[in-house]
Design a protein that fits this description.
Blueprint lengths: L3 E4 L4 E4 L7 E6 L10 H19 L3 E6 L6 H10 L3 H18 L15 H13 L3 E3 L7 E3 L35 E6 L17 E3 L1 H13 L2 E8 L3 H14 L4 E8 L2 E3 L2 E2 L10 H4 L5 H9 L7 E2 L2 H25 L10 H8 L4 H19 L5 H17 L8 H4 L4 H23 L3 H13 L2 E6 L2 E6 L7
Parallel strand pairs: 3-4, 3-9, 9-10, 11-13
Antiparallel strand pairs: 1-2, 5-6, 6-7, 7-8, 11-12, 14-15
């Protein structure tokens, strides 16, 4: 089956055919680094990390560009409230973003350009738009420059709207506009704002409009035509609509596919800082392990809304622990397998069908269920095959507990892990000795003491094994 992806522009699932055979270029809009990322922000990172992994597993060489918006109205406002330079504020939360997608096992982009590093490319694009009659300098002397939406007949094609049905743009003072829907390419300097947040231009000092930033960076690193442009559904309009208009208006073909992940909601409303309902990633991973949060996000189809709750998150954590338990037990019995082998056909079909992760995870659970029946019988070709299939699927989803980064993080420091493992094994030896002399009361006492400390003991044909209890098991 050929990989098929939903394209927002055509509102249809289409066969994926790259611009260059064997190569894929992806641009997805990064965060405006105004504050710490919440689960709604990081969902996009997880979605496009899975897409990248699947494309690479399918044999493509993938280039991923994800920008950082480090100059924007909200950054200026929030840094002023804190009394810190805007650039220091932006860098602080850029680092927080990096921490968040790293902790969830998302591989970093091939390159991550900052908006402030691409002012020359933006100015060149504005000049081209003015020359072609698609942009104009505001006549009020503000230094603002606007895109003339009525000069571009295809404006509204991505969001499937008519210009007359659109609301006025909110990204600049409307007094210098020909049409209230025109959007800012460049914002003139305003007294009272930091002068460091402005750059000289033929129209006066100022700073870029948000939409222009992504067009300039996507074109610079991926060329005038590339394969996939993505982001959250809330970016479809006006951000991506405006990107498409200004990029095609200068003669670029731009993106072949537009992919948008659905939103993460709480109580049916979009998760956002302004609503006060955000679940900051750093806080959430104190409640469940990062790998469990990733599983929670991956189990939904990327075009389906994720209704966030800690109850649902904890249920997902239990589900993942069952998968992880099989991998751990089967690896102990077999001595481990290479996860790079052939994947189950139903899993491949699901992933090729617009990244159908719910169906793919169903295949994963079925394989785990069948594999669990084989563990008690010891090492076998069938068990090795099941483990290889499970680990292979988990690698694609970024969830294999025996692969990086998870394997390095599993037990904390090597020294502490070694000490704890030695102490638990010593107690288990005492328990085994008590059982050997039929002193079951003493054996049970050891088991109960370990359970009280949060250690679960499982008797297997190869001897007792221990693991840390989940929240429910330890309560």
């Amino acid at each position: 089956m050929t990989l098929r992806l939903y394209d927002t522009a055509t509102a249809a699932v289409r066969d994926f055919v790259p611009v260059q055979p064997g190569q894929v270029g992806i641009y997805h809009c990064g965060l405006t680094v105004q504050g710490a990322p919440h689960v709604g922000h990081i969902y996009k990172e997880v979605v496009f990390d899975v897409l990248r992994r699947w494309l690479e597993r399918s044999g493509y060489e993938v280039t991923v560009i994800a920008n950082v918006t480090d100059i924007e109205d909200k950054i200026l406002a929030k840094s002023a409230e804190r009394g810190v330079p805007w650039w220091a504020h932006a860098y602080e939360f850029e680092r927080e973003l990096h921490w968040a997608y790293d902790v969830l096992g998302c591989r970093p982009p091939t390159y991550e350009p900052r908006a402030t590093g691409h002012i020359p490319e933006m100015l060149e694009m504005i000049e081209q738009l003015i020359e072609r009659g698609h942009a104009y300098v505001a006549p009020d002397g503000s230094g603002d420059v606007y895109f003339d939406v009525r000069s571009w007949p295809e404006y509204g094609a991505l969001s499937h709207q008519r210009i007359d049905d659109m609301e006025a743009a909110e990204d600049a003072d409307p007094r210098g506009k020909r049409d209230p829907r025109d959007f800012a390419l460049w914002k003139g300097y305003v007294e009272g704002t930091p002068r460091t947040a402005s750059w000289p231009t033929p129209w006066g000092r100022g700073r870029p409009g948000w939409h222009l930033e992504c067009s300039a960076m996507a074109g610079k690193y991926l060329g005038t035509e590339f394969d996939i442009h993505g982001g959250g559904l809330d970016l479809r309009f006006p951000h991506h609509e405006n990107e498409l208009a200004q990029s095609t208006a200068v003669g670029q073909k731009f993106a072949r596919f537009w992919m948008h992940n659905a939103l993460v909601t709480t109580a049916g409303e979009k998760m956002s800082k302004s609503m006060g309902n955000s679940a900051v990633v750093r806080n959430v991973v104190e409640r469940v392990r990062p790998i469990e949060l990733r599983y929670y996000l991956v189990q939904s189809h990327y075009r389906s809304v994720v209704e966030f709750s800690f109850e649902a998150l904890e249920e997902a954590a239990k589900s993942f622990q069952r998968i992880e338990g099989f991998v751990t037990r089967a690896a102990e019995v077999t001595g481990g397998v290479d996860p790079a082998g052939e994947l189950p056909a139903d899993f491949v079909t699901a992933m090729d069908d617009d990244l159908g992760t719910p169906a793919a995870i169903a295949v994963l659970h079925n394989t785990v269920r069948d594999g669990n029946k084989l563990v008690a019988d010891g090492d076998s070709a069938a068990l090795r095959e099941a483990l290889a299939a499970v680990r292979g699927m988990l690698v694609v989803l970024g969830l294999d507990p025996l692969s990086e980064p998870w394997v390095s993080r599993a037990g904390g420091s090597d020294e502490l892990t070694e000490v704890v493992d030695g102490l638990v094994k010593a107690l288990l030896e005492q328990r085994q000795a008590a059982r050997g002399r039929k002193d079951y009361a003493a054996a049970d006492a050891v088991r109960d003491r370990l359970k009280a400390l949060g250690v679960v003991v499982e008797d297997t044909p190869r001897g007792p094994r221990w693991s840390l209890a989940t929240t429910d098991e330890g309560s």
